[in-house]
């Protein structure tokens, strides 16, 4: 994703009602924020937000939190919501935040699902810890996921996918399912495409998908 500095994006984001500006204050209090006890699904690295906005509109009985590191990217998701004819969805919140510190914003058992879509590959070995499916990140997820909670990961990047399969083993997590070709598999039913996914599918690239959970 290009990281052009979109002028004033921080201010525009802060002003949007669906953005949580102090997410640390909601640790352990997300049910109160949403006003119900519905499951909470989180997307890390949501980019322009098409995936999570679509899911939030489809599933009113699930609460969604989209996390994006850069305001210059998050602003696109905010603009999508602002330009929508529909009312602001009551089950969707956005956060500008680095997921490395995700345990500062959710407490134990607070999250029921984590989506990772087309996460940055960080190809250099010395940056492996930054990959969102590294065992270091899995450890953070295990501190916030409910017992049956899972992580669902999609990527076009086969090296990152194979690395992720290894990390799941190393972290002693359970691999629930996986495919190297999502769009020619049973998992395509109900699949919501992300912006990156649409591009890669148009290029004819196979999409890898896995689901894993704590043992
Ligand atoms: N998920 C979107 C899609 O599939 O179209 C965007 C994919 S883009 C390649 C990866 C996104 O993850 C970028 O917007 C990037 O800023 C964000 N990101 C990377 N590392 C992150 C982190 N540690 N915390 C939050 N967001 C992160």
What report would you give on this structure?
By secondary structure, the protein is an alpha/beta fold. The protein has a single domain, classed as Vaccinia Virus protein VP39 (Rossmann fold, 3-Layer(aba) Sandwich). It is built from seven helices and seven strands, in the order ααβαβαββαβαβαβ. It has helices at residues 9-15, 30-34, 50-58, 71-83, 135-142, 158-170, 195-202; strands at 40-44, 63-68, 92-96, 111-117, 145-155, 173-179, 208-214. Strands 3-2-1-4-5-7-6 form a seven-stranded mixed beta sheet, with helices on both faces. α1 (9-15) packs across α4. It starts with 8 loop residues before the first helix and ends with a strand. S-adenosylmethionine binds next to β2 and α7.
What would CATH call the class? Alpha Beta
Average pLDDT, to the nearest integer?
95
CATH superfamily: Vaccinia Virus protein VP39
The CATH topology, please? Rossmann fold
List unreliable stretches of 5+ residues.
none
Report the count of strand segments.
7
Distance between the amino and carboxyl termini: 34 Å
What small molecules does this complex bind? S-adenosylmethionine
Rg is 17 Å
**What is the count of DSSP helices, taking H or I runs of 4+ residues?**
7
SSE string: HHEHEHEEHEHEHE
As a percent range, the share of strand residues is 15-25%
Relative helix content: 25-40%
CATH architecture: 3-Layer(aba) Sandwich
Largest sheet: 7 strands, mixed
């Amino acid at each position: 994703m290009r990281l052009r500095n979109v002028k004033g994006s921080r201010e525009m984001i802060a002003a949007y009602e669906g953005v949580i500006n102090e997410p640390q204050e909601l640790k352990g209090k997300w049910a109160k924020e949403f006003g119900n006890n519905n499951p909470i699904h989180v997307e890390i690295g949501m980019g322009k937000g098409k995936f999570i906005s679509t899911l939030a509109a489809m599933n009113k009985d699930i609460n969604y939190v989209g996390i994006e590191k850069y305001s210059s990217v998050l602003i696109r998701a905010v603009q999508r919501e602002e330009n929508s004819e529909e009312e602001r969805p009551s089950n969707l919140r956005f956060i500008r935040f680095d997921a490395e510190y995700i345990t500062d914003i959710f407490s134990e058992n607070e999250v029921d699902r984590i989506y990772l879509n087309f996460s940055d590959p960080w190809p250099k070995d010395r940056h492996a810890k930054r990959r969102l499916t590294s065992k270091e990140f899995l450890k953070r997820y295990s501190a916030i996921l409910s017992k049956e909670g899972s992580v669902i990961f999609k990527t076009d990047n086969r090296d990152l996918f194979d690395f992720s399969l290894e990390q799941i083993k190393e972290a002693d997590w359970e691999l629930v399912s996986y495919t190297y070709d999502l769009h020619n598999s049973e998992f395509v039913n109900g699949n919501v495409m992300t912006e990156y996914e649409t591009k890669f599918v148009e290029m004819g690239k196979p999409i890898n998908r896995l689901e894993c959970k704590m043992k």
